[in-house]
Amino acid sequence: MGGRGASSQMQKNSLAVSSEKWRPNVEASENRIRGKKTETAILVGMDGKILIDKSDGHKSQVGFNGQELALMDGAILTHNHPRNSTFSDEDLKIMVHGLKEIRAVAVHGTFVMKKTRENADISMGKDYALAQKEHLNQTNKIWAEAQMKRLGLLEMDKLADQLNHSIEVFRRKWLAKNAKNYGFIYTYERRTA
Ligand SMILES: [Zn+2]
Fold it and tell me: Is 149 helix (H, G, I), strand (E, B) or coil?
């Protein structure tokens, strides 16, 4: 993509801002999959056309074949997160296929990762995964120690909740702090309907 001259680029940019033709279909799709127990992914073109609508019946993953990945250039990918979490590193790694925006639907709203420039740095997904690794290692250590202590089931449940929450907080903070450095904007659209 990209216009040949500055004026055509400006025209493109203003068009993108003034008419988001894709938005009605994206929002209708999100209202349909919000709160579902399995993950469904929907790819919508800039013109609003639905290009992919699929679920593998898994709780936290939808796989794409090469043909499907080829449709992603310049499109919007939305999907639901049954656990209401923000983006996984797999989600952000899909952006290397040229997505304009990826969205993750939670119960009360939608996480949005949007390109702010055409040459956005798509290595963000890789860096995000690396940053999480250290945090995950610490979390696993705490968990292993708790298992050695043979805590009761209730205490283990409580600890699992705490650790999962700490991972989620870490992820949201990392994305909020770093997305702009890669040419993306990370936001949360509160549910309106
Ligand atoms: Zn996801």
Answer: coil
* DSSP category for residue 78: E
Taking the centre of ligand 1 as the mean of its atom positions, its distance from the CA of residue 15, in whole angstroms, is 29
Name the amino acid, one letter, at 92: L
Domain count, the chain: 1
**Alpha carbon distance 92, 131 (integer Å):** 13
Q: What is the distance in A from the centroid of ligand 1 to the CA of 114?
A: 15
CA of 176 to the centre of ligand 1 (A): 17
Domain hosting 113: range is 3-122+180-190
Q: What single-letter amino acid sits at 4?
A: R
Q: Residue 126 in 3-state DSSP? A: helix
Domain annotation covers residue 147: no
Ligand 1 mean position, distance from CA 124 (Å): 15
Query: How far does residue 38's CA lie from ligand 1's centre (Å)?
Result: 11
Residue 51 lies in a domain: yes
For residue 104, how far is its CA from the centre of ligand 1 (angstroms)? 6
pLDDT means per 10 residues in the chain (193 residues)?
A: 46 56 95 93 96 82 90 96 93 94 96 95 94 93 92 92 95 97 96 74
What CATH code is carried by the domain that includes residue 34?
3.40.140
